[in-house]
Amino acid sequence: QSALTQPASVSGSPGQSITISCTGTSSDVGSYNLVSWYQQHPGKAPKLMIYEGSKRPSGVSNRFSGSKSGNTASLTISGLQAEDEADYYCCSYAGRVVFGGGTKLTVL
Amino acid sequence: EVQLVESGGGLVQPGGSLRLSCAASGFTFSSYSMNWVRQAPGKGLEWVSYISSSSSTIYYADSVKGRFTISRDNAKNSLYLQMNSLRAEDTAVYYCARSGSGVPGVYWGQGTLVTVSS
Which of the residues B103, B106, B108, B112 would you substitute to probe the A interface, choosing the one with the greatest number of A C-beta atoms within 10 Å? Predict the structure, then answer.
């Protein structure tokens, strides 16, 4: 299976909102609502931020939200903060696990 | 508190073998499926292998099929990855991750580095 497609980088200023897209196919992102999103700071393990497309685990800020339209899932971060600067990965869990290539978020 | 602690990484020559372990605590290990995910230096996440709670279902990425073997010992709360015929492109940090509802990685270990080089 091919990796899901994410933009290599996005940026935003503190307080702004940004959206990271994750494009797959009708066989993965489009077929199931089993997209998850992970945040990874340098040298650290990934952290689950969104699961089943739009659900937040306990302890994750409500500034993080997920959605899906067709074969594209999206992660939106509102009220950007400096600590949000990290790499973000989407993941589809449709029979096999497929990750996106990752997006580096820079908080200006 | 859920804890996953990987071990067994290190430097190995091309063609060599290595066995990774993941010690789990803080949850009922035998009730959850598990995954191995790797990350090459400076690169993104790559799923490696999946094992169901009872070991009845196992999947591998095409890149490691036939060379890697995932297993678990529920009595010892441990997950394993036997890696044979290692290649330079297998160099990565290897994470074990506990699955959840539709999620391959609800909890992650800190990772163990495998370096394949002569």
Answer: B103
In tens, the pLDDT along A34-85 reads 999 999 999 999 999 999 999 999 999 999 999 999 999 999 999 999 999 9
pLDDT digits (tens, 9 = 90+) for B69-115: 999 999 999 999 999 999 999 999 999 999 988 899 999 999 999 99
> Which amino acid, one-letter code, is at A42?
P
Give the integer Cα–Cα distance in Å for B64 and B83.
9
Cα(B78)–Cα(A99) distance, rounded to whole angstroms? 25
| Tokens at B94, concatenated | 């290897």
B35·A97 Cβ contact <8 A: yes
Residue of A47, A48, A99 with shortest CB distance to B45: A99
